[in-house]
Amino acid sequence: MCTSLQLKAKDGSVVVGRTMEFPTLMDARLVVLPRGLELHSYAPDNKQGVTWTTKYGAVGIDAFPNIEPTGYYAWTDGMNEKGLYVALQYHPGTAVFSSPDGVADDTLMSAIHLSTLVLSTCANFAEVRAKLAEVVVWPYVLGPMGMAPPCHFVFHDASGGCIAVEWDAGEMKIYDNPFGVFTNSPEFTWHTTNLRNYTHLSPDNPAVLTVAGQKLAPFGVGQGMQGLPGDNSSPSRFVRAATYVATAPEQADAAAAQRIVEGADRPNGGYCVDIWHHVRGANDLEMVKRLGGERVFAIQMNDGALVQATAADNPRGDYKTDCLVARVPPGLGEFDCAGFIRVLHEMGVAAPISLEVCSKDLWEAPPTIAAQLAADGMRKVLRAAGVAGSAT
To answer: Which residues pair with 162 in a beta bridge?
Structure first.
């Protein structure tokens, strides 16, 4: 079972989240792909399929490190330096990939490599559609699984656009996804049609109804959502996610994230606390404290200027560009990185720290130099916070 959804904030920023509820542990790991790598997928009879050179840096989740020969770029999730995101989700009983018969080997590929291909070569949906038209995804049998993993894909871009990609009777189909939500089987168009069964749902309470001269008032708050499915089937999760997204108020702070996580009520759902969005948002450490340390699952660190430059004096003034190119290693900007880490430590957070330094200068630097600058800065911040060597 997998559910993904997209939320948009008032300032135009886009947040995408998903659950990963595969019934077995997948030994997944985080992988970073730099530009300039030569990669390939598979054709039948152990032949080489599609080959490509990575054009954009990307980070993703390698879900099959112990059963996939390529070892590090069979991704279920990922995002590239242009803000393009992809998620592979299970699609049993519905996904039927294309036949490789009569198709040139150099156009064939496995679905487990599609995420990496797109993220490392495409910057926007026009390029995604063009790239997908160049390849044929065939039913490559993945090792110990003994089958071609039945799956479909959802793509989000930095502007908030969303498309779904599926295979039906051997034909790839691409759909615009204005709802920004995605689950599992059956096909995407079935889910969107099914939403018409729930047009009565509303975040508002029903009005008082007069029948036979008697006023009938709702018993309490929330009756506008009566009939919202509560089970964990794929159709119900799609309806629930679409309803939550459609009725969620546009907010851009930790309190909004807290309400969503608590509403989802999944034991494997929590918060990724990102100092950039904390500072650019409410910048309220008291709000962060109220999240609860046990539900903080990841920390993302970087640094930057306290005040975002405006377009009049800096071409990086818009929020999207500011996010993607104006960050610097921790300790080299104006954020209170040490104070931020100290608060998380006091909350009992024991989550891994990742460095998300989206910087034009670092993108152009050799990967080893960029990694060293970011790591050195983070170590200094940890020492300044007095938590160096601790779990946080």
So the answer is: 156
Section 307-336 average pLDDT: 74
Q: How confident is the model at residue 330 (pLDDT cuts 50, 70, 90)?
A: very high
Q: In the structure encoding, which two tokens stand for residue 17, read together? A: 């989240």
Query: What CATH code would you report for 251-387?
Result: 3.20.20.150
- Positions of CATH 3.60.60.10 in the chain: 1-209+220-250
Q: How confident is the model at residue 392 (pLDDT cuts 50, 70, 90)?
A: very low
Question: What is the C-alpha radius of gyration for the chain, rounded to an integer number of angstroms?
Answer: 23
247 Cβ partners below 8 Å, 6+ apart? 202, 203
> What is the tens place of the pLDDT at every residue in 190-234?
999 999 999 999 988 888 989 999 999 888 778 889 999 999 999
Domain with CATH 3.20.20.150 in the chain: 251-387
Q: What is the mean pLDDT of residues 316-325?
A: 70
Percent of the chain beyond pLDDT 90?
55
Residue 27: pLDDT band (50, 70, 90) is: confident
Residue whose token pair is 């880490």:
341
Of residues 68, 73, 77, the one with CA closest to residue 51: 73
Domain 1-209+220-250 has CATH 3.30.1330.30: no
Here the tokens at position 49 are 């399929």
